[in-house]
């Protein structure tokens, strides 16, 4: 359980793999996905490593499979995905796979070549058929004994330019007749629209000019007999050849479909096998080979808790290879910083990704993700609090959670959907917490729910009917007995929804709530730093880091939170008008100004306590700024002295007093000023909560209110249309846009205001050799 709050304990291990068993051992480690290989040949060129030829062969097989996959997609044939995870082929099986893929590629290329030639021939015959069919009427209009002619087809969009060019070059001495071919013609690569033309002219000189122009415009010329009988006989022969060619084309296409359909059933399995083989050989290239050429040496980072699983995987690999010499795993002692590895599941992975987006934690540093599971959706809900919107968000997230297996199997290519689906549990918690805060705010689509009956009553007020008749606004005085019968059982009293001073009341409530939540959140973050100092055994950071930091913040902002609670409990309906301003009190406290007649003290002895707290806070600054630096300098002098006495060589550059002093000064100033700016930053909880409530109220009053106010006979149909618009705008603006805004602000509060108190995030991630991640990367492309 402790590993949930801190990254896994890692170790550097050395693997001794027998040459004949290395392939199978690495295969088993890839299936396990719990070791990260180090490159032991950093100075060796990629093309000079031992298994480079095997990697190239795998890449060539992968290229052939991609070609087949492209042909399958072009034919709109779905690839079968049975979810099968085939075992890695043995190295000796590579020859059979290569032969299979070579045969398949050659067969498809031969089919494509033949099909392309047949389609080209079919196109030519089709064009000739249209020429013979359409040109009879052209001959009827021209005296054949006087003219010579050429006939052909040309792309339809080139006709106007073609006609102008003929007129200019031939100076009007040609006669062009054209007719559109209604059906588009299928070129081997595309489908185009063409027109039939025939050009009549006299003389060889014009003939040469016309042919050159036709060639320049890529027009296809065909022989056309002069007599009708010859044209009729030729047309019959062309039609017969077209029928025969169509039959051959159909047979060729059927054969191509059969080949592709057979390949589609095993494409994914083939891809997995080739990708796994390539990954294994690439990993083997990271290993060293001993002088006897009988053993491969690898170094890996792995979790200590998974050493037994790794040992078992090595034994399975050795047995699978048929080797009798076992592989050896030897733990190594090292001063290198291990990678950071936080184990996650489908629920915690989304929150861990939020933390990792800020920065990968240092090795064994406190992991903020477990706390983020609660604090992130809660702070989001404080800004987004609305029961109705929370229910909609919860339902959408529940759909993704309940149908996650089916949605995972569909493998959508929509990046936005995949991003939301990956964070489905985050959205679910955000929706649930939004329902809770919506109950506290008593806000449901900008309307309050009167579930328990209001605590306010107008019946005991004297002259109430006169008051209602003579005043547009009724003032309820909580000091009058019977008017205020006690607080609402849960959340805010619904009567505030119709009060004119609703915003004034909510502003005060939400602003104070934001400060309270912010200070508690930051104090919790500072408290977590204590566990880091205890784990890494740094007592100096505890006494001259954590304690001054927690005391500084508690003396100023913790005291401000206590004042808020004290003011809420110390004043009632009779004395609330005399309550002083806490903001003025806090400013005067920091300025030692206690002569302000407009702001009376909250309690007796307030000046002495506040002066003491400010002095304590000020005393914490030199502890962090000066004392810690001097103690570090003193420790370094003692270390040098002890080393000299022990005749140990000491490098003078190990401790730089100037660098340490500057670093400590920056940290101290950043923390002290950050306490002020971070506390102010939490006021975004108040600002976005009010903005969301006001947007929801505006949307209701400007859209939904129109439909509800209609009393006409067609009001139902109008209400249906208006409700559709209201629902669309609610989802688009309040759920999507406002939800994204609140999400980003909650993200900032965690990254900047919370995590910087204890989390450095300067580590590097544990990236194990895993077939699962490699294949996911391949098939998500």
UniProtKB/TrEMBL annotation:
The principal localisation class reads membrane
User: Can you cite an annotated GO cellular component?
Assistant: synaptic vesicle membrane
Highest taxon of source: Eukaryota
One family from Pfam that matches here is V_ATPase_I
Q: Which organism is it from?
A: Amphiprion ocellaris (Clown anemonefish)
Which UniProt keywords are present, listed alphabetically? Answer: Coiled coil, Cytoplasmic vesicle, Hydrogen ion transport, Ion transport, Membrane, Synapse, Transmembrane, Transmembrane helix, Transport
Instruction: Report how it sits in the membrane.
Output: Multi-pass membrane protein
Q: Coiled-coil segments, which residues? A: 94-121
Q: Which family does it belong to?
A: Belongs to the V-ATPase 116 kDa subunit family.
Enumerate the Gene Ontology biological process terms. vacuolar acidification
In terms of PANTHER family, this protein maps to: V-TYPE PROTON ATPASE 116 KDA SUBUNIT A 1 (PTHR11629:SF68), VACUOLAR PROTON ATPASES (PTHR11629)
Q: Under the GO molecular function aspect, what terms does this record hold? A: ATPase binding; proton-transporting ATPase activity, rotational mechanism
Q: What is the lineage of its organism?
A: Eukaryota, Metazoa, Chordata, Craniata, Vertebrata
* Membrane spanning stretches: 378-402, 422-441, 515-536, 542-566, 607-627, 715-737
UniProt-annotated location(s): Cytoplasmic vesicle, Clathrin-coated vesicle membrane; Cytoplasmic vesicle, Secretory vesicle, Synaptic vesicle membrane; Melanosome
Q: What protein name applies here? A: V-type proton ATPase subunit a
Record function comment: Essential component of the vacuolar proton pump (V-ATPase), a multimeric enzyme that catalyzes the translocation of protons across the membranes. Required for assembly and activity of the V-ATPase.
């Amino acid at each position: 359980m402790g590993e949930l709050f801190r990254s896994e304990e890692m170790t550097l291990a050395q693997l001794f793999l027998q040459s004949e068993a290395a392939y199978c051992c690495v295969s088993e480690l890839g299936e396990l996905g719990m070791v990260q290989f180090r490159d032991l040949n950093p100075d060796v060129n990629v093309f000079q490593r031992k298994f480079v030829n095997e990697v190239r062969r795998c890449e060539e097989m992968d290229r052939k499979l991609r070609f087949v996959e492209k042909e399958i997609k072009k034919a709109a044939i779905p690839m079968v995905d049975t979810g099968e995870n085939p075992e890695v082929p043995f190295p000796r099986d590579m020859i059979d796979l290569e032969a299979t893929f070579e045969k398949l590629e050659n067969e498809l290329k031969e089919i494509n070549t033949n099909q392309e030639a047949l389609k080209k021939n079919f196109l030519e015959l089709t064009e000739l058929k249209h020429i013979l069919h359409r040109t009879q009427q052209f001959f009827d209009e021209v005296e054949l004994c006087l003219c010579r002619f050429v006939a052909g087809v040309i792309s339809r969009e080139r006709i106007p330019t073609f006609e102008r060019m003929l007129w200019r070059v031939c100076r009007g001495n040609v006669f062009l007749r054209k007719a559109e071919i209604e059906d588009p013609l299928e070129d081997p690569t595309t489908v185009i629209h063409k027109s039939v033309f025939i050009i009549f002219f006299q003389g060889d000189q014009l003939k040469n000019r016309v042919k050159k122009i036709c060639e320049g415009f890529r027009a296809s010329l065909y022989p056309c007999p002069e007599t009708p009988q010859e044209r009729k006989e030729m047309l019959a022969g062309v039609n017969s050849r077209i029928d025969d060619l169509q039959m051959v084309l159909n047979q060729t296409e059927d054969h191509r479909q059969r080949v592709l359909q057979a390949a589609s059933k095993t494409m994914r399995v083939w891809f997995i096998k080739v990708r796994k083989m390539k990954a294994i050989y690439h990993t083997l290239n990271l290993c060293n080979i001993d002088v006897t050429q009988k053993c491969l040496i690898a170094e890996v980072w792995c979790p200590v808790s998974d050493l037994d699983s790794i040992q078992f995987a090595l034994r399975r690999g050795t047995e699978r290879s048929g080797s009798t010499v076992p592989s050896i795993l030897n733990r190594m002692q090292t001063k290198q910083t291990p990678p950071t590895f936080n184990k996650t599941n489908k629920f915690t992975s989304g929150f861990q990704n939020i933390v990792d987006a800020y920065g990968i934690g240092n090795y064994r540093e406190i992991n903020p993700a477990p706390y983020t599971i609660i604090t992130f959706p809660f702070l989001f809900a404080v800004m987004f609090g609305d029961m109705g919107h929370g229910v909609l968000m919860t339902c959408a997230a529940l759909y993704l959670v309940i149908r996650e297996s089916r949605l995972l199997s569909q493998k959508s290519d929509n990046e936005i959907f995949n991003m939301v689906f990956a964070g489905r549990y985050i959205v679910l918690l955000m929706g649930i917490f939004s329902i809770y805060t919506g109950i506290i705010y008593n806000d449901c689509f900008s309307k309050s729910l009167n579930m328990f009956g209001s605590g306010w009553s107008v019946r005991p007020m004297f002259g109430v009917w006169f008051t209602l008749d003579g005043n547009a606004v009724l003032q309820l005085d909580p000091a009058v007995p019977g008017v205020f019968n006690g607080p609402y059982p849960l959340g805010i009293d619904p009567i505030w929804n119709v009060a004119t001073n609703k915003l004034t009341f909510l502003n005060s409530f939400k602003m104070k709530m934001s400060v309270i939540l912010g200070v508690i959140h930051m104090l919790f973050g500072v408290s977590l730093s204590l566990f880091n100092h205890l784990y890494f055994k740094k007592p100096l950071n505890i006494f001259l880091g954590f304690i001054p930091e927690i005391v500084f913040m508690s003396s100023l902002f913790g005291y401000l939170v206590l004042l808020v609670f004290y003011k809420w409990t110390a004043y009632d309906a009779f004395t609330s008008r005399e309550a002083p301003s806490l903001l003025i009190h806090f400013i005067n406290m920091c300025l030692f100004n206690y002569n302000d007649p407009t702001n009376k003290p909250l309690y007796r002895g307030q000046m002495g306590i506040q002066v003491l707290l400010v002095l304590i806070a000020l005393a914490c600054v030199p502890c962090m700024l000066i004392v810690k630096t001097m103690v570090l300098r003193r420790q370094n002098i003692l270390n040098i002295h002890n080393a000299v006495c022990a005749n140990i060589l000491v490098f003078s550059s190990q401790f730089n007093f100037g660098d340490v002093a500057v670093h400590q000064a920056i940290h101290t100033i950043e923390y002290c000023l950050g306490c002020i700016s971070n506390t102010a930053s939490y006021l975004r909880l108040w600002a976005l909560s009010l903005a969301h409530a006001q947007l929801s109220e505006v949307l209701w009053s400007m859209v939904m209110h129109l439909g509800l106010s209609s009393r006409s006979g067609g009001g139902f149909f109008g209400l249906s249309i208006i409700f559709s618009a209201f629902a669309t705008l609610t989802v688009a603006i309040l759920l999507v846009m406002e939800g994204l805004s609140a999400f980003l602000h909650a993200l900032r509060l965690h990254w900047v205001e919370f995590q910087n108190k204890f989390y450095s995030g300067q580590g590097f991630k544990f990236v194990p050799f895993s077939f699962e991640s490699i294949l996911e990367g391949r098939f998500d492309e």
